Prior knowledge:
By secondary structure, the protein is of the alpha+beta class. The protein contains 7 helices and 10 strands. It has one domain (2-172). It is globular, with a radius of gyration of 16 Å.
Amino acid sequence: MIAGNPDTFAVLTEKVANWRTDTKVSGMLHICINGVAYPRKPRATDVENDILCLFDNENSAFSHPKVSRKLFDMKGKKLFKKLRALRFPQYYAEAGNAKEADCRFDAVFVGPATAGYHVFVLSDGQNVRLLIGRRKKRKRGGRLRYLDDVVITADEYQRTINRLYLFYRGILEAPEEM
Length: 178
């Protein structure tokens, strides 16, 4: 299933029935920005956990983009560097200035993250901006470098999110087991 417009922003996902186990739903989950799918190669993931993270109450930047007009207006690479320093101060803060991580703009795509990709999402109130980067080294702490970003209307973004939600409604609305 493709939710959104792959030429700007889309989520490419599929649940694969014969990959399902008793405890999880496996499949594929990729994010598409400006016509490029990330991860670049097909990759299996635990889509159930990925989707639950993306729609995690009001803390998820993916389902509830946080508004910051000041940050939104920054240039792509400069903004990406600012957001990665906020999210990973232990790696990008100046010596001795490491603060607590600020996760407000962090979209947790677990599948792409295991391939080294990281997505930030923010809004100016009218539009939504997504920025993607990748770690140079796969191991933890590798340098996160800017790849691309896209700006779309908040309405277009919401339509994409709604379609993805409807596709995974069974997972997202399942009653919790006691």
